[in-house]
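Tutorial sheet, problem 5. The four components below are modelled jointly, 288 residues in total.
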Amino acid sequence: MATPRTDPLTAEVVELIGTVVARYHTEYEQAAAKHSLTGAQARVLGLLTLEPMPMRRVAQQLKCEPSNITGIVDRLEAHGLVERRPDPNDRRVKLAAPTEEGAETARKLRESLDFAREPLAELSEEERTVLRDLLRRMLGERTS
Amino acid sequence: MATPRTDPLTAEVVELIGTVVARYHTEYEQAAAKHSLTGAQARVLGLLTLEPMPMRRVAQQLKCEPSNITGIVDRLEAHGLVERRPDPNDRRVKLAAPTEEGAETARKLRESLDFAREPLAELSEEERTVLRDLLRRMLGERTS
DNA sequence: TATTGTTATACTCTATAACTATA
DNA sequence: TATAGTTATAGAGTATAACAATA
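Model answer (structure tokens):
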């Protein structure tokens, strides 16, 4: 209640961002579906492709309960895209890691996510730079 | 495959948009949860606040199957936020409309969605105008 | 004792298909 | 016959709580 009424300009920007969010999600889900994956599965696979990690950490990155990761990794494992490896330093831990096929699928997934190019192609390089800087400022320093 | 490799600048903008999308979703779900609603329920309620409409049309707007809307409206109705009204012109149709309490909840929900202000407050009015124009261009003419 | 991953449970969202009542 | 909404069903994601193995 400390904030003033939202002005029309801000409201429009928020609405535009909402549209971006909706389109981003649609495209992400479609790209995942092309590889018979759900959005959550594709996100986990993409995450593991950056670096194999304990199940616990996957849950932290996805901001969900650890118990959920069990099922998602189960299904990725059933597809042959991910495997569980023992952690030599702590036998309680299981490291989730993409298989070779999983890494390949993740790569194709990133490519088929043409949200990357199609809408941004409308903008010149200079405009994209401006957009980048504005988004950076908007998102702040939070490394999180 | 007609598109060239994604350049680093575009890649960064895409990643920034991904961050915006993630934060938008988190805040949206949290705002909905404050009112004991799920994201889907909050979206439907927000939609109906703009204009009461047949169940069928709700499904079209949310891009999901009509059968799903039955349950979502059931739960909103159980919360006393939405009601089903007969359509005088076609007795097959049920118009979903917010109750007074539903409209009030939707209003609070919009306010508590401080994604609207907090991050954008970092930008000056001129910068927000630039951002608006870039997003408009990026999203194209589609009025939808 | 505390932590990791899992299981069990319950709820929601989602798509598909079959059903009903209207049109 | 076609359409609007519903029901039934199944799969997936989510949170909570309890559990086994390990630290």
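Marking note: Chain A has one domain: 30-138. Full credit if you identified this.
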